[in-house]
């Protein structure tokens, strides 16, 4: 099943240079940090880490519509992604993670539950740590041991989350967002590049 990306046209893109594993942490732009942290905490080992992932779409039109890049200079390039090497890949059941129902459901529940559970300053400080950008599974596991309030909030959010249950490791022709994490020696490159002004 082919999938596609859109990004600004550069010399590297025109040459078809391969791109390698993302080494830096990618913090979310359209998803609250606490939801990103929850998704990472719940992520099954066989699924890609969104913080090191490359994002794509099942069609050129959706790739163009979902692109966070602004057209500059030479415009945007839309291309089929060709992967070489080991990769973890997933497809969501929504066009973009920012539309996932976890976000509204959990954020709405969370504000009420924090007010109910975190009465004292220590409890509020523990709850605040759930919102730290880029928290790891280990960070959240440590929080569950250190704070009953954090443990209760994490358990409640985990029970409400459907993100990974709806993600598939097999690509389909649906409109769902595709994301993949390259292995250490893997790469991807563009195929059939189309430039759009």
Question: How is this structure best described in words?
Answer:
The structure is a single chain. The protein is an alpha+beta fold and 197 residues long. The chain has one domain (4-196). It contains eight helices and seven strands; from the N terminus they run βαβαβαββαααααββ. It has helices spanning 11-15, 33-42, 60-66, 101-117, 121-128, 137-146, 148-160, 163-166, and strands spanning 4-8, 19-20, 54-56, 76-84, 87-91, 178-182, 187-196. A four-stranded antiparallel beta sheet has the order 1-4-7-2. The longest helix has 17 residues, at 101-117. The two termini are 27 Å apart.
Give the neighbour order of strands across the main sheet.
1-4-7-2
Query: What structural class results from the helix and strand content?
Result: alpha+beta
Number of strands: 7
Low-confidence stretches: none
Radius of gyration: 19 Å
Question: What share of residues are in beta strands?
Answer: 15-25%
Written as H for each helix and E for each strand, in order along the chain, the element string is EHEHEHEEHHHHHEE
What's the end-to-end separation, in Å?
27 Å
Mean pLDDT: 92
Largest sheet: 4 strands, antiparallel
Approximate helicity band: 25-40%
Give the count of helical stretches.
Answer: 8
Q: Compute the number of structural domains.
A: 1
Shape: elongated
